Amino acid sequence: MHFLYKKIYFPMTQKKKELPYLERDISWMYFNRRILQEAARPHVPLLERMAFLGIYSNNLDEFFRVRMATQNRIAECTDKSTSRESEHAKKLIKQISKQNTEYTKIFEETIRQTTEDLKKENIYLISDTEVSSEQLDFIRSYYKEKLSGSIIPIWFSAIRYFDFENDENIYLAVKVSRQQGTKQISDYAFLELPVNICGRFIRLPDHEEKSYLIYLDDVIRCCLPLVFEGLEYTDFQAYAFKFTRDAEMEIDNDLRTGTLQKISKGVKSRRRGEPLRVIYDACMPKDMLRRVLKKMDLDKLDTVIASGRYQNHKDFMKFPDCGRSNLKYPQWPPILKKELDGNDSILTKIQKKDRFIHVPFHSFDSFIRVLQEAAVNKHVQSIKITLYRLAKESKVVKALMAAARNGKKVTVVIELLARFDEASNINWSKKMQDAGVNVIFGVEGLKVHSKITHIKMKKGPDIACISTGNFHEGNARMYTDCMLMTAAPRIVKDVHSVFDFIERPYNPVKFKELLVSPNEMRNKFIALINNEIKNKKAGKDAYIKIKINHITDPFMVNKLYEASQAGVDIQLVVRGNCSLITGIEGVSENIRINGIIDRYLEHSRIFVFASGGEEKVFIGSADWMPRNLNNRIEVITPVYDPVIKKEMKHIVEDGFKDTMQGRIVDGSGKNLFREEETPFRSQEALYNHYLNENI
């Protein structure tokens, strides 16, 4: 089991304490392994298995671009004061590399098995060596019509390093040869695959009720004589490789540079980050591999992996379905709640009673309608909202811009440092400013990760919406998130105060209802756990039920251990990183954790505390990680409506008893299923529950 006893300094007691603690990055590898596990499960529809392979690959790319880049920076630090951290980072890199090598073998085998299963469904993914003469004619015609002029080789001899090549792309290293008298002359080039033009997979004409697909890589291999046309080359060899850059941005702190310009420059600097992982076709000749690696300027801590013929498997997320909807999950159309439908004002409905939606089971259109009505309702004075990630054609932003044009005072707090969405957020910011929206670029030194909306009314109580997820139509179709819509005065007032804090962070502010980081969220959660410990010792009801994405904060890990030691029953549903080690006698035997991987990405954060029989329920944006509790503006709200409280608890309890999609998360990385228990799938049960509720 890959964990250590981590020494944590507790300022309150001014003492250090050792506790069992699984490293965040090791636990992330276990999480991604659960996704790979799902890709290999026979009962998962075949095309969904392909998508899980793509998600696994895409996750791994981002992990190396961000987390491994951070560890590399620490490991390379030569400052004596950080020698301990540097040595720890080196050991961690070695351990992760070992895991990655092990998982890569499983990944390659899963791809092989899945493509074999596709053949049983008459879907053939063929290579350039398997094409018929008719298919070759089609491929060459396709190249001339769609790709000619989009593929321009670069000679290895012409560049010093891969300075400007994008690490999101796939490349072919090509050896071309020709006869010059009695000698064979060889040259070496590389070329970028134009995936953005035609996708990664090209569908060939069907034949005898069989569907045929070919990788774009192999389309280019078939057409190399056309790529190098007129240069007298007669022999061609091509091998795929890809690399991952350090994705941490260099942010210019020049006071003369505005926030928008700083982030724009930072996004460009990311494209030039140092390569730190290379994956290449294991069949690539050694002389060609040397040329590729020489252009990377790697060091001994970087990762070089010999892999299969094809790289960048994130493209499996867009694998063509060939018209075979029976090989995908059955459709679950989002449910438009009856109570939020109809001709009556949705704002008035919220003023009368708290409402909630749980996407993607419920339709996100209910929230869009809130904004659209607010944009035209003459009783609305102003709208304030925090935006972290935005859809490409965002209805949310369009409603806000319409509100501004209708004379409403609209304030948008947009987080420019939402990783990998910086460029999109900058683009939307400019459009909103042009429409008259007051755009605020967060708080320097703090990421604004909260998901809150405030609507000030001229008539009746003001309204607030507090969500666990982004106000993003695309996310709302794939991520499970809960949103509370309320006119409860104390909560709404606190939400307004959060916006005041964002606009004027130097002014002290106290929140009466909300748990807000970095102000008091950690202390309030600790107080809630302490109350459970006290109640357990007093013989009262004591339990903690939480659904969350990540738990890695050492102080919260320690506090949950304390609660377990006191006998508090702790049930957790944790999707991703989890540093807790369960089942240690005298430490964590009362902690049980379930990790769900299913058709929707589990994303909601819900907290339930027994509170001596007077249950307390909270929802919001924060995970229990140091970044969320210390360095971000996060918002957690109490839920008071009895019906909504019951629903939130229901979501957590269904997640905890999921045996079909849930794995035991205990720190071992085994990801075992609770197969001895009655089969239960929480996402399916919740969807059916909401369908029945809406009849």
From TrEMBL:
Q: Where is the active site?
A: 449 (phosphohistidine intermediate)
Catalytic activity, reaction form: [phosphate](n) + ATP = [phosphate](n+1) + ADP
What's a Pfam family in this record?
A: PP_kinase
Residues where Mg(2+) binds? 389, 419
Tell me the domain of life: Bacteria
Tagged with keyword Phosphoprotein? yes
- Which key words tag this protein in UniProt? ATP-binding, Kinase, Magnesium, Metal-binding, Nucleotide-binding, Phosphoprotein, Transferase
GO biological process terms, semicolon-separated: polyphosphate biosynthetic process
Q: How is it modified after translation?
A: An intermediate of this reaction is the autophosphorylated ppk in which a phosphate is covalently linked to a histidine residue through a N-P bond.
Look up and give the organism this protein is from. Phocaeicola coprocola DSM 17136
* Task performed by this protein: Catalyzes the reversible transfer of the terminal phosphate of ATP to form a long-chain polyphosphate (polyP).
Q: Which GO terms describe its molecular function?
A: ATP binding; metal ion binding; polyphosphate kinase activity
Q: What is this protein called?
A: Polyphosphate kinase
Q: What is the enzyme's main class?
A: transferase
Q: Does the keyword Nucleotide-binding apply?
A: yes
The UniProt entry, under PROSITE patterns, shows: PLD (PS50035)
> What InterPro entries has UniProt attached to this entry?
PLipase_D/transphosphatidylase (IPR001736), PP_kinase (IPR003414), PP_kinase_C_1 (IPR041108), PP_kinase_middle (IPR024953), PP_kinase_middle_dom_sf (IPR036830), PPK_C_dom2 (IPR025200), PPK_N_dom (IPR025198), PPK_N_dom_sf (IPR036832)
Instruction: Give the similarity note.
Output: Belongs to the polyphosphate kinase 1 (PPK1) family.
Cofactor(s) required, per the database record: Mg(2+)
**Residue ranges occupied by any PLD phosphodiesterase domain in the UniProt entry:** 598-628
Its signal peptide is none
An example of a Gene Ontology cellular component annotation for this protein is: polyphosphate kinase complex
Positions bound to ATP? 59, 479, 575, 603
Please state the Enzyme Commission number of this protein. 2.7.4.1
